[in-house]
Amino acid sequence: MQWETVIGLEIHAQLATKSKIFSGASTAFGAEPNTQACAVDLGLPGVLPVLNAEAVRCAVMFGLAIGADVNRRSIFARKNYFYPDLPKGYQISQYEQPIVMRGQMEIELEDGSSKVVGITRAHLEEDAGKLLHEDFHGMSGIDLNRAGIPLLEIVSEPDMRSAKEAVAYAKAIHSLVRYLGICDGNMQEGSFRVDANVSVRPKGQREFGSRTEIKNVNSFRFLERAINFEIERQIDVIEGGGSVVQETRLYDPDRDETRSMRGKEEAHDYRYFPDPDLLPVILDEGFIESVRASLPELPTEKKRRFITHYGLPAYDAAFLTADRALADYFEEALKVAGCEPKLVANWVMGDVSAALNKAGLEIGACPVTAAMLGGLLKRIADHTLSGKLAKEVFEAMWAGEGDADVIIEHKGLKQITDESVIEALVDGVLAQFPAQVEEFRSGKDKVFGFLVGQAMKAAKGKANPAQLNAVLKKRLED
Amino acid sequence: MSLHQQSIAELRGMLDRKEVSSVELAQHFLARIKTHDPVLNSFISVTEDEALNAALAADHRIAAGHAGPLTGIPLAHKDIFCTLGVKTSCGSRMLDNFVAPYNATVVERLNQAGTVMLGKLNMDEFAMGSTSESSFYGPTKNPWDLSAVPGGSSGGSAAALAAGLTPLATGTDTGGSIRQPAAYCGVTGLKPTYGRVSRYGMIAYASSLDQGGPMARSAEDCAWLLNAMVGFDALDSTCSEQPVEDYTAKLDNDLSGLKIGLPREYFGEGLDVGVARVIDEAVAEFRRLGAEVREVSLPNSELAIPAYYVIAPAEASSNLSRYDGVRFGHRCEAPKDLVDLYERSRAEGFGSEVKRRIMIGTYVLSSGYYDAYYLKAQRIRRLIADDFRRVLSEVDVLMGPVAPHVAPDLGTSLKDPVTMYLSDIYTVPVNLAGLPAMSIPAGFAHGRPVGLQIIGRAFDEARLLNIAHRFQQVTNWHRQFPAAFA
Fold this sequence. Notes:
The complex is a heterodimer. Chain A has helices at 53-65, 163-180, 220-239, 285-293, 299-310, 314-321, 324-337, 341-359, 370-381, 387-398, 404-411, 419-432, 434-441, 447-458, 465-477; strands at 3-14, 69-70, 73-74, 77-80, 90-93, 100-108, 114-126, 130-132, 141-143, 150-156, 192-202, 212-217, 247-252, 257-260, 273-274, 281-282. Chain A is α+β, with helices and mostly antiparallel strands. Chain A has a nine-stranded mixed beta sheet. Chain A has a three-stranded antiparallel beta sheet with strand order 5-4-15, with no helix packed on it. The mean pLDDT of chain A is 92. Chain B has two domains: 3-258 and 398-485, Amidase signature (AS) enzymes, CATH 3.90.1300.10; 302-378, no CATH class. Chain B has 16 helices and eleven strands. Chain B has an eight-stranded mixed beta sheet with strand order 4-6-5-10-11-9-7-8, sandwiched between helices. A three-stranded mixed beta sheet of chain B has the order 1-3-2. The model of chain B has no long low-confidence stretch (mean pLDDT 97). The chains are: A alpha+beta, B alpha/beta. Chain A binds chain B through residues 39, 42-51, 78, 80, 82, 84, 87-90, 142, 269, 271-273, 276-279, and chain B through 81-82, 88, 90, 95, 98, 100-102, 104, 199-204, 206-208, 234-238, 314-315, 317-318, 320-324, 326-329, 338, 342, 362, 365-367, 370, 374.
């Protein structure tokens, strides 16, 4: 039988606010356990939540960026359940009237076509704390630093039909929230968490199959693998005569499989009801318009502009605009270099990205700033440097030896473009290798490469290759 | 007259004239607590050392000429308000070991005002109850009749005021918990408009109904105390930004032309004849003061009790989830796993009335029942609020009894909680509508005090206090003192 996969994603994005969603405690990552949990976060008797306006602004920004309805009135509800990482015994979330509804996200597929994924809703809620199971001698510790960190939960429609589509959607949302500056997107630290609802159905069937929810996926690579594992598992279950149990499954990256969370996942009745400690969030037009005015250029717009304005191929434009910082880096380098945009794109996507990957750095921490790269490319454009020498200069800049011009000067790497100097070099080589010259003249073209190599060697690699070629050719034909 | 029978204005004058020091005042009340409270059980904690230190500081402030209206005046807080460094039990075993690391906004403001806290007052466990018998610390007794309950949940506050153990007390009112004990003990209490007094640091029972307020021996004293309690608080999202006023400024305003409505539904079946007679006489007194009286109707009143006993337990079931034995409060011995920790800590820490309401609340919020109970109760709540809005556009205030009968005997309510719930019939609608209301002493029936309830428009506290004060200028009910405690 032909199977069709149906996938919807729930993404939890931690909002990059300075303080928590309902208290004044800091949200900085990595502090000593429980040093960033105030009376409100601890759920002490008598404390009350006060909504962080910045979290609301972030949610509205996101809603506007995905063309969604931003509800002028939304309410917070309590989701009631007991767990030690949940100090109040309920999580403050949004249930019936979320702040954002009905948006969409365009994603690009591998074959170059695009697809629109519906976003059902995005709502604000507080994060829970963390249980620590190591170093407590069979008991568990609780760290409430994370309790109360603002989350935007982004729920998609079940619009994706393959793991690749799901990853493309997750990456598009990831890119967007980083563009907007509302989430740092750090998946390892849990700032951006993706849960996948996966089901399969016979191709052509309209009803959805039973779905499972996959949690604990902390990279795009694992997301793809987890979904693919789950699709195969479900098909195996059904084809083996069984039926898929609706449940939550955890992805185990070490064994590359999903496992049932049974035992923990009893049928929960969360007893949602409006939180009487918080007033409805009422947004006026003025506020929404001010947020709209503050929206940066979004990834799809930027990509379009990179193609039309800079004449870049679609692949390059997509690569460069996936990350706002990378796009900014490109544009700044281009401004300084004043050269062909494609040359800058090649360097950013090639040498710069490779070096960053190797060093495990983000573009923001690149030791070669955009201005430094621009300075280097300027010297390629004006023929001061050959491509080969430029790589040497780049490495020196990476090592902290200064700007391109300083390094060129210091290392004497300036390209030889003086015609008479090149002619002298070529003449020297011709005199040195009369036999090879004879061979060439008798029709052995291959010897030309050897003579070029010898001339370049004599120039210590600094001769302008095009000029060198031309001079040599001219001399041999004389 | 003894110090414990003086008004706050009189005490203020004596302090300012150095006829008495704040330390002497505190000592006077602390001595009375020592003498009388073993019988009454109105205090959960007496904070003698802290009181004397605060009194000393107040005396310095008075000597330096920096005294405010309440500087050096003793008071006691209901044990529902968090007090930094002093046990805050909420009348529960669950919080018997809880010492708050912060002050409630009300406590902080009154500390800033220079009041001298004598201790923390007894109450029904988590403010759930109408008799103060559900306290883990044992029942408080009614100073007028030791075989009667003082009412609840602010029973400790009312009893301590009636017996002259403190000149001022704070209380909280979710369904009548300030007004009803004030009525049962013959003292004066005001439940302000929802949002008038910050709830921050006031341990939540039912968040959409809870409201702290002043309790004292007169309306004038309540006005002094209210002045120091009210005002916007950024820590409470439901706290109103409506400007505050000086609640003592209009106390003496003339009442001629005041339009008083008597809700028909507050004088119907179930109202004790003796109580009815006291209320009739009080209303007659207002006629003599120049008020116009007419009958009005609040047709949805009878729905208030069922709606309240859905909404309040629903909120309570969630509010009390934080008492799980994990971070503070009672924890059972040697739990074998997480579920055991939860179950035994809560089973041991909570009393039966609290458990009953948690179960009711959990039930009405459950999937499949939510619409039939919680949503329907919210609709009734709007109908009740609409009733009040309509009637209060025709009259200035409403008057009626606080409770259908006088304080019942100790022990009778525990056996029959439904009858106890029904006795909240005249107070609960006011909380559902979020309106301000007072209870003032109006006489006696069956040898026990009777309170008159005055209900006003939202944020009309100044008018309520004015009306109560004028009544107290021409009556002596609020000056009565139980003989055993004179």
